């Protein structure tokens, strides 16, 4: 028996469609400091490999916005900027190139600020999630509903935000009404689903540590999904975000809302440093590896500078550069092969891992492969520099905007 899903509008978060029958996506949020670009990217790749389709990063300071300018072009999945209190951080995140914003109407309340951000998003074609949270409700709504958080109060908070968006002609929206109390969360989403036709982001906020947090979130999210409500989900656990991504993926599989697969393939976007057509290589790799029916996680990376490091959690990967492919197992380079043999070699090494395990594969690493790879990496850096994606120009834009706002 299939679940009949609620009919909604559709929004596009980068390459991921949400609503209007699109596959239900899994989200999580990084726990690193966004200004720490390399640590944040490493976590993004790890959660993408665990099943996350979209990742949210906090943007709470100018350094975080500058970090996003470097993270977005290197991320394998769309990036959402999480904004609280300061609408200028939303504008800075847009300058950084994020794929979506999350605004909390409970702590950005001035109409002119909300409308400024919405107008900028409209001009750029960037959607916004209205992220209502029962724990940070606008005080006026709290008072209106008898000094307590109710489903009606949360839905009204979302409707107020929509009015500000509509004032500037902005309608590219998804909505969440999260609460830590599961029955309240379920009631609020049911009411919201009956009130608007926007796609809904499901979650139980601050669900807590494992295993209790996992149970709370599963009851809340799973109940609504079984009723056909919900278009994207996030487990909010006091745990490694990898656990959130895994839980979301497993819940969707359990409900028959995501197809089970043996191959888990992740690929970087085609950024300024890419030396091959990442999309075509990834597609060829997917076709070849799926035929093996091996449970394995494989990364296809467009350049050798950051590829093996960013995707070091993958069982197997390939990074292209200077006409060659660097094959790596758990981030360690094991072979350097001609570019036209990359997919063939991926298949052979996947078989090796399946038969001999990770340690067995590492034991077959080519002597000198790591040194060859490092020489290629340094040559590519010498050729294209540290900032192949021109993130520096975006950072300057962010700093100019912030400086003007401060004066």
Task: Explain the overall architecture.
The protein is an alpha/beta fold and 407 residues long. The protein has two domains: 11-254, Alpha-Beta Barrel (TIM Barrel), CATH 3.20.20; 263-384, 2-Layer Sandwich (Sulfite Reductase Hemoprotein, domain 1), CATH 3.30.413.10. The chain is built from 14 helices and 15 strands. The protein has helices spanning 37-50, 62-71, 87-96, 111-124, 139-144, 151-167, 182-195, 212-226, 241-254, 278-290, 307-310, 342-362, 369-384, 391-406; strands at 11-13, 16-18, 25-29, 54-58, 79-83, 100-103, 128-133, 173-178, 201-202, 232-234, 263-267, 296-301, 316-321, 324-329, 332-338. α1 (37-50) crosses α2 and α4 crosses α6 (151-167). The longest helix has 21 residues, at 342-362.
């Amino acid at each position: 028996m299939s679940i009949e899903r609620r009919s909604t509008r559709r929004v596009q978060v980068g390459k991921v469609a949400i609503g209007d029958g699109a596959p239900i996506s899994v989200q999580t949020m990084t726990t690193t400091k966004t200004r720490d670009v390399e640590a944040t990217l490493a976590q993004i790749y790890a959660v993408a490999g665990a099943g996350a389709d979209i990742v949210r990063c906090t943007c709470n300071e100018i350094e975080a916005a500058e970090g996003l300018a470097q993270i977005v072009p290197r991320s394998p999945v769309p990036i959402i900027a999480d904004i609280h209190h300061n609408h200028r951080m939303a504008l800075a995140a847009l300058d950084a190139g994020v794929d979506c914003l999350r605004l909390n109407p409970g702590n950005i309340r001035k109409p002119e600020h909300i409308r400024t951000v919405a107008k900028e998003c409209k001009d750029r074609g960037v959607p916004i999630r209205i992220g209502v949270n029962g724990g940070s409700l606008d005080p006026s709504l709290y008072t209106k509903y008898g000094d307590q958080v109710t489903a009606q109060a949360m839905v009204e908070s979302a409707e107020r935000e929509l009015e500000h968006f509509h004032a500037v002609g902005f309608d590219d929206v998804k909505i969440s009404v999260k609460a830590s109390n599961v029955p309240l969360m379920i009631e609020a989403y049911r009411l919201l689903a009956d009130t608007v036709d926007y796609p809904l982001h499901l979650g139980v906020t601050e669900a807590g540590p494992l295993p209790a947090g996992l149970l709370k979130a599963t009851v809340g999210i799973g109940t609504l999904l079984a009723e056909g409500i919900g278009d994207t989900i996030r487990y909010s656990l006091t745990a490694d975000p990898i656990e959130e991504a895994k839980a979301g993926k497993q819940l969707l599989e359990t409900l028959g809302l995501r197809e089970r697969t043996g191959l888990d393939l992740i690929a970087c976007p085609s950024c300024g440093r890419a030396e091959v057509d990442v999309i075509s290589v990834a597609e060829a790799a997917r076709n070849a590896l799926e035929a093996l029916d091996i449970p394995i996680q494989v990364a296809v990376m467009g350049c050798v500078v950051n590829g093996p490091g960013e995707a070091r959690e993958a069982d197997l990967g390939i990074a292209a550069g200077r006409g060659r492919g660097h094959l790596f197992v758990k981030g360690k380079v094991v072979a350097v092969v001609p570019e036209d043999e990359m997919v063939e070699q991926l298949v052979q090494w996947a078989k090796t891992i399946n038969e001999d395990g990770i340690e067995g594969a590492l034991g077959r690493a080519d002597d000198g492969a790591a040194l060859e790879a490092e020489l290629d990496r340094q040559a590519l850096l010498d050729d294209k520099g540290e900032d192949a994606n021109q993130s520096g120009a975006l950072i300057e834009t962010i700093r100019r905007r912030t400086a003007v706002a401060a004066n």
